TrEMBL record:
Protein name, entry field: UDP-2,4-diacetamido-2,4,6-trideoxy-beta-L-altropyranose hydrolase
Superkingdom in the source lineage: Bacteria
Classification via NCBIfam families: PseG
Organism: Sediminibacillus albus
Pfam families given in the database record: Glyco_tran_28_C
Record-annotated Glycosyl transferase family 28 C-terminal domain positions: 187-276
Keyword DNA repair attributed: no
Length: 350
């Protein structure tokens, strides 16, 4: 059987975060069994380069602006040299013209999409795990394009799949708190949360602060710990993320990829939206009740924050969040996507 060849074109930086790389890496791990995978990036952090090296995934770094004509031409050039079958795209700088040119060059395209806001869709597969989108939002789409919509298509890395079916232990009183504001946290919301916790009277929980691979505020956050009255511990680029989530009784988190991982693990959470692409967080809270949505990072008051802490202290609230999260994200997202790709790949199998 011929190995199908993939290029994953995605980027990461302090400004855009690490989510585009992390969710495509999850799919890459599942594809590696019977396909050839290569990442192509215009922007990527040192921490993520190390992660891809550890995964034994090839990486080409382009000397071009993400989404530019030079970026497009270099990506097509690499695809032709490597005789690639599929391009997996994840990033907001890949517009309909970029995708159209890939298709004109004989490439199949799987597009990770979040907003359903392109003028024209011609990708072979359009994957949107969001909770606020539906098929009707894709108005100008090719007849051959397949839509994979909803949280049932959430991709999960292999370390999470090893925890499939494990139910969390919900304590009567939460003692372990995790702060995780994504791979980059460009506005240093992590430090703002620490300062709000310091204002809470007698807050005697053990708190672990996870700093992602694209976080540029590590020195400032570490410096704040020496003056803090809280029981704080820094965790950097944790290699066993599922165990960390399993340790926590609840999390204070951003609304990106990690929020879906927390739902899968049955971890209750207070969510602070730090980016426009985190709209799903509000619906996960209101419709699916997997978390408690506080709002955007610039609008939260100390009163709102402390009220959220009181709510999530309730045992029944956390039990309900845990059950709802694991019912929503069942760990079969990778499998469902591969099933669709297998149908698309059938002409390439020998």
């Amino acid at each position: 059987m011929k190995k199908v060849k993939f290029i994953i074109r995605a980027d990461a930086s302090n400004a855009i975060g690490a989510g585009h790389i992390m969710r495509t890496l999850a799919l890459a791990q599942s594809l590696k069994k019977y396909s050839s995978i290569q990442f192509v990036c215009s922007e990527i952090t040192t921490g993520l380069i190390k992660l891809l090296n550890k995964e034994n995934v090839c990486l080409d770094v382009l000397p071009s602006t993400p989404g530019s004509e030079e970026d497009l031409n270099k990506t097509i050039e690499i695809a032709k040299i490597k005789q690639v079958d599929w391009i997996i795209l994840d990033g907001y700088h890949f517009n309909d013209s970029y995708i159209t040119e890939l298709k004109k060059n004989g490439l199949k395209v799987l597009l990770f999409d979040d907003f359903a806001n392109l003028d024209y869709y011609c990708a072979d597969i359009i994957l949107n795990r969001g909770t606020f989108v539906n098929e009707e939002m894709y108005t100008n789409i090719e007849t051959y394009s397949q839509l994979l919509i909803g949280p049932q298509f959430t991709t999960l890395r292999k370390e999470f799949l090893n925890w499939q079916g494990v139910k969390p232990a919900i304590k009567t009183t939460p003692t372990n708190v995790l702060i995780s504001m994504g791979g980059a946290d460009p506005n240093n919301v992590t430090l703002s949360i620490i300062r709000m916790l310091e204002k809470v009277n007698d807050y005697n929980r053990e708190i672990k602060v996870l700093l992602g691979p694209a976080n540029n505020h590590k020195d400032r956050i570490n410096a704040s710990l020496t003056k803090s009255k809280l029981d704080l511990h820094i965790v950097e680029d944790d290699e066993d993320m599922p165990s960390l989530l399993n340790w926590a009784d609840f999390a204070i988190t951003a609304g990106g990829t990690t929020l879906f991982e927390m739902a899968y693990m049955g971890l209750p959470s207070i969510v602070i939206q730090i980016a426009e692409n985190q709209k799903s967080a509000k619906i996960l809270a209101e419709r699916y009740q997997t978390c408690l949505y506080l709002g955007g990072d610039t609008t939260i008051t100390q009163h709102d924050f402390e009220e959220a802490l009181q709510i999530i202290n309730d045992l029944n609230v956390r039990k309900k969040m845990a059950i709802n999260g694991q019912n929503l994200i069942d760990g079969r997202g990778n499998e469902r996507i591969l099933e669709k790709l297998n149908i698309k790949m059938s002409d390439n199998l020998e």
